């Protein structure tokens, strides 16, 4: 009686746990597996409901993808580990970036890990993927935490993600603490001091704020030197304008009365006279006035400074 009950019970249990973990994921696209999600909370609830893979299922799927490039197998591996990405991303919420963005970047890392995972290594995918997931999240944080990138070298990146946790108290590190952190993270004390200063700084708007009334509320743009106020350039402009004005006066005095009147009324007076108005005044054609104007301008250009 007992054996007859156990015989059908074990296969039924195996089908309910192991088979659906694959069939549920492989039978439909990822969007169908997770269902429509309208918020981050709904997404996290959906990925938490996806069954975890057994060691045998994970290995079988990894072999299928590696040997046959079965995309359904790759999708199964990704979907089954989305919950782990959420878990890792939660640990980086202290950097002020949206959790949804961190999860999205972590998912990219998970996909890269699945592509490179070799089941012959003898480790679970989650142990292999954690490094790829964190690498993508780290890169996203470094690109978006500040306008100016705060960590570019390997040592700076290591300090960026570990310096806060290494500090045992508030305030600036003393010399002994700096050396202890540098020894622990295998970086130079100078790198520790520089990263501490960078983390303590804040971004400033480059352009002045139009509503800023406080004299102390300044921006970097307010302290940049202006090329227009260079003393040497200003002296050159003033000197050129002075010499040009004197040369123009000399040039106008060298013209005959009619040519000088034409130039002054065409270019120096307000309102400016037309060619026809001057032609009517002097009793000649407008074309003749234009010719006299061109001759006068040529004489003036010859005396004006280059």
Outline of this structure?
The protein is an all-alpha fold. Helices cover 68% and strands 0% of the residues. The chain starts with a helix and ends with a helix.
By CATH, the topology of the largest domain is Four Helix Bundle (Hemerythrin (Met), subunit A)
| Mean pLDDT score | 77
Helix fraction bin: 55-70%
Number of domains: 3
Q: CATH top level of the largest domain?
A: Mainly Alpha
Overview of this protein structure:
The protein has 306 residues and is mainly α. Helices cover 68% and strands 0% of the residues. The chain folds into 3 domains: 15-145, Four Helix Bundle (Hemerythrin (Met), subunit A) (Up-down Bundle), CATH 1.20.120; 148-202; 229-303, Orthogonal Bundle (Arc Repressor Mutant, subunit A). It has helices at residues 2-26, 30-34, 40-48, 55-68, 71-80, 82-90, 99-116, 125-144, 154-166, 175-185, 189-200, 231-254, 257-268, 275-282, 286-303. The N and C termini lie far apart (115 Å). 18% of the residues are buried.
